[in-house]
Amino acid sequence: MAVQYLTGHPLQTGRGESLCIRISRPDPGCVRDCLAGKKTSAAARKKWTLLKAFAGMFILCTLFSVTLFSLAILCSGGTRSSYTAHYEYSSGGSKSCSGITVFDAELNNTIKICRPTWIGYRDEVRVVKVSNDLGIVVKEAVIL
Q1: What is the rounded distance in angstroms from the CA atom of residue 102 to the CA atom of residue 87?
Q2: How far apart are CA 86 and CA 4, in angstroms?
């Protein structure tokens, strides 16, 4: 059985067993390390915490910048246009959404649209988009 004192070091009994008594709130990492006979330093825990904080801030900044860039394209007064085209269903995976792929003549490439609106069962879709010098934002995709 493992319990740990506030010092973070396991106690050794006369029979070679580790006794760990922890008086403050339980820390799963500390208990796991105590059971394994390891001594976790405060510096190692601090480095891991700083690494997690940095990774979280990086993810939040990336999401914020993508949102800000999309809003800049949308609100900068581009050309609003729509077209009707044939589509193919595209299944989603662990890192992408399910949706449809459509050929865009302005880009001369296929684009993937996630979660289009379904109002019919034909093989055509109406795409409404805003385009300018910064890029293209798809506002709506309705399957006809």
Answers
A1: 5
A2: 66
State whether 83 and 139 are in the same domain.
yes
Q: Could you tell me which residues are beta bridge partners of residue 87?
A: 102
Query: Which residues lie below 8 Å from residue 54, measured CB to CB, with a gap of 6+?
Result: none
> Whole domain around residue 20: which residue ranges?
1-40
The continuous run of DSSP H or E covering 139 comes out as strand 136-143
The predicted-structure confidence for 85-130, as pLDDT tens digits, reads as follows 999 888 888 888 888 999 998 889 999 988 888 767 778 899 999 8
* pLDDT exceeds 60 at position 13: no
Specify the pLDDT at position 125.
92
Q: Are residues 11 and 67 in the same domain?
A: no
Specify the pTM: 0.51
Both tokens of 9, joined, read: 């070091």
Q: Percent of the chain scored above 90 by pLDDT?
A: 25
Closest to 113 in 3D by CA, of 94, 132, 134, 136: 136
List C-alpha distances in Å: 39 to 17, 24, 48, 110, 134: 15, 17, 15, 55, 54
Q: Count the Cβ atoms, other than its own, within 10 Å of residue 105.
A: 8
Residues 124 and 83 occupy one common structural domain = yes
